[in-house]
Amino acid sequence: MSQSAEKVLDHSALFEEPEYKELFERKKGFEGGCGAAKVQEIADWTKSMEYRELNFKREALVVNPAKACQPLGAVLCASGFEGTLPYVHGSQGCVAYFRSHFNRHFKEPCSAVSDSMTEDAAVFGGLNNMVDGLANAHALYKPKMIAVSTTCMAEVIGDDLDAFVKTAKQKGSIPEDFRVPFAHTPSFVGSHVTGYDNMLKGFLTHFWDGKTRSEVTTPSININGGFDGYCVANNRELKRMMKEMGVAATIISDPSEVFDTPADGEFRMYSGGTTIEQMDAALNAKGTVFMQGISAAKSAEYVEKAGQKVVSLHSPVGVAGTDALLMAVAELTGQAIPASLEMERGRLVDAITDSQAYLHGKKFALFGDPDLLLGLTAFLLELGAEPVHIVCTNATKDWTAKITALLAASPFGKEGKVWPGKDLWHMRSLLATEPVDFLIGSSHGKYLERDIGTPLIRIGFPIFDRHHHHRFPIWGYQGGLNVLVKILDKIFDTLDAKTTDSASFDLVR
Amino acid sequence: MSAVLDDKTRNRALINEVLEVYPEKAAKKRAKHLNVYEEGKPDCGVKSNIKSLPGVMTIRGCAYAGSKGVVWGPIKDMMHISHGPVGCGQYSWSTRRNYYNGTTGVDAFGAMQVTSDFQEKDIVFGGDKKLDKVIDEITQLFPLAKGISIQSECPIGLIGDDIEAVSKKKSKEVNLPMVPVRCEGFRGVSQSLGHHIANDAIRDWVFDKADYNAPFESTPYDVVLMADYNIGGDAWSSRILLEEMGLRVIGQGTGDATLKEIEMMPRAKLLLLHCYRSMNYIARHVEEKYGVPWFEYNLFGPTKIAESLRGIAAFFDDSIKEKAEQVIAKYTALSQAVIDKYKPRLAGKKVMLYVGGLRPRHVVGAYEDLGMEVCGTGYEFGHGDDYQRTTHYVKDGTLIYDDVSSFELEKFAEKIRPDLIGSGVKEKYIFQKMGIPFRQMHSWDYSGPYHGFDGFAIFARDMDMAINSPVWAMTKAPWKK
What we know:
heterodimer; A: alpha/beta; five-stranded parallel β-sheet; four-stranded parallel β-sheet; 21 helices; 13 strands; 48% helix; globular; B: alpha/beta; six-stranded mixed β-sheet; 13% strand
């Protein structure tokens, strides 16, 4: 017996003890496995070029994709409005999944409801669920708005949100003037970023349709962050930078408070977020900056039609990305970029100068959402690092064109290959047959690190197995510094681990 | 006595208080799910396994979660296709901690998200052809997979796909067991129907296709340890006790199970059922068709472990009974040391539980072994028989809440101010912000195992960590006191 009260062993140590190793051996006798030699043979084969070719012939099977479904994005978008309850019309299990997905990433509560459609709704439609659901949600959670999106069940049976919400109001579920922005978010189209875009457009339409725009004379703009796992810190950083510039910026969908509430004895179901008044006023802003333009294509189009200038960026990480953001804001508003931000820029460049020798020529593989991949790739290129495999499961044609052009424009992008629509099982083959030094992606990349040995730098969504990363921005010059340090820490840790037994185990690096 | 009366009065008042906030129709429905347990009653006096109210933040999941997430997903040498759009498989990818041994992606496929990733055209034209191709590609790329299950997501049942026909055809073509499971998320009211459907699929697509006349060398001590999902290694810290008491575990499931082990159920002399809720259906079937008895056991905390090991031994001869006593004796010193260390820090602490499966009752004994008291409990997806079984565990005056909503649970906790809440990840951060210590009792909060004597030590350590963390003293700023 290895367990003791003095030194309690949990799973990470207990099952390494001999009595459990013996148990595992005994169990194997009943498992009907194919033996260690065969497993090794197949394991080796899965890392071969022959396997890679077979793997890339896949047309139907998807293994370990780096994308989720639309309503997840809709829930994140809706969470960023003040007092707003995300409401998903359809099966209830989906909402349990969305909530737990965000819980695990942010280590924060996530409030959202479903109207729990079951077999009868599948036959007769989900109108009754909507009628009761809005009434119950309104009574219990006292929201200022309810933002409705859909699961694939509701989409397949063809429920009409516009008609349903109107009927529910007629039946007295909620007051006639109660705000219910909505969006259809079919899971079988696009990904979580598409759902975010649809819900955002739902909000914009709800607030702006039929209104006349009269542009303000003050330096006032809107910024939208898109589906961003770092929204807590990134939005705060954006607000800080805008303040430095003297720009009045409305963050359209700002979950930075609701996903970062204090532990002070009180649970805040709602906290912060874009207000109704801000949304009304946002129509008259000088323009809107979309921080993740590819993932906000429909919303951007709508804003442009509403008569505003639109700036579409691609998750700007690093020096040039932040330069572009600030210059765009300066152009929109006529405000100068202040010396304080120029100082921050200089500090980031200084940091890169200090560390560039460790970054130059290092080869990277990356996976994640389209805009984030553009931002990270641009940053790697300015560090003199070489992006080699870029896998984007939820790529669009626009993304493929943009990232191809980005790589082509840099001598460090020559080896870069772009893999739109591929998944992490494809990435496994790429890493096994054309090794790189480091992998950048979400926590799901840890299986690739285990299988192939490529060290994983966790940047993306979701981050489940490291705490509090979302509390530090990746945008702005400060954010660039954070990303730089994340990359460098992994580089140095890897170097130390590799040189433990050699003279190269240097104190000063 | 008066303390119990006070609690009862308070709990009844609490129930009325939360019901007042609901619209009338909803309040009437919710009233049936909330009660104060009266000692001597045959059940907890609540309705269960009924639809959740629309728009009310239920903590429940769906049938797919019950089948893929609970019953089928942990079977490690099969590939489980999340058949439909990408989300369901993505959110349930590796989040339940069903531990297994094996080489992932080669001869074990647990920590993988395998999906047919439906696009609009699959919804419009049907997904059967795609499924056919998915299966071909699986067999090419994962030659050591011993079978394939098809876990239906919502659209499958709505667009009229015939996954059973595809399964039959492909099973012959590729010579592998195929298991179509109709666990579309809109079926039933919770995970629970998904368990049932998943059990039926074991009956129809595993047992009915296996050859039980084939020779098998059995012993009088053959058991199958089932309905343990090996969360954090629970099944392993259970199995070790069964083996020590002289039993031969010929199959384990579905945590760390192979398909071959699942096929063993009808071969056993006794089925040992841990999570009654999720696998009683197949246990009853095996009993009826193959004459194998089953026994619901509980390996949380030394009192219940001893009771369960004796209960299991009672099915066997004296040699097993003797060895069971030896096992209990062997671990007594460990359990006593754990109790001596932790009980002084935990005695008298009040616990509220809200979990799924068997835990709302099974863990009560483990808390009591540490001198703690469960003052409220409820099931996410329990049935009437669960609430009957709960009466053996809970005390007079315990607050009972079935399919509790986040709103109700928060209100209850605010007033009762328990010393610990045991529930899921969706609840964890809410209560921690309220300054109430919390442990996730689905995933063991990334710890475990909690089963068996080895697990009890970890359970005690973790409850102590949660309750006696210095962080709770910092919730209020000193100038606010």
